[in-house]
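User: quick one, sequence for these tokens?
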């Protein structure tokens, strides 16, 4: 196992152990940032996640949201914002958030841990950028 994978997995474990139920993402993001992870790029519906770390890139292949051939939903900014607010309120699981994002037409998103932004993209160039607050991580 590489140093990059070890660092990422240790940071993820710390983040999930301390993550509050409500508004947990900023805590997770700050924990990863402090561990040297700079970006996290998600591809939907494949649920492939690319982490760009100080020690090298790491890919994680999650369970895809669809199989076979599927239509791509139209980008729906309002539906995406509803999915975000539901997640931020602690009313959805991460897999539920990913599914809701896909149904809102998100084909990928990019988390910039240094800038504290997440940019969500549709397949026709649509995008929605959301800032997230700094979190107090001990």
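Assistant:
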């Amino acid at each position: 196992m590489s140093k990059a994978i070890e660092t990422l997995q240790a940071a993820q474990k710390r983040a999930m152990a301390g993550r509050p139920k409500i508004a947990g993402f900023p805590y997770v993001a700050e924990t990863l940032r402090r561990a040297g992870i700079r970006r996290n790029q998600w591809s939907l519906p494949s649920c492939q996640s690319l982490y760009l770390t100080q020690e090298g890139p790491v890919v994680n292949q999650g369970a895809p949201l669809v199989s076979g051939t599927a239509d791509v939903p139209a980008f729906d900014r309002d539906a995406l914002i509803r999915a975000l607010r539901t997640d931020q309120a602690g009313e959805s699981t991460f897999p539920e958030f990913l599914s809701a994002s896909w149904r809102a037409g998100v084909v990928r998103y990019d988390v910039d841990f240094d800038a504290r932004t997440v940019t969500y993209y549709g397949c026709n160039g649509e995008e929605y950028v959301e800032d997230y607050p700094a979190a107090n991580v001990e």
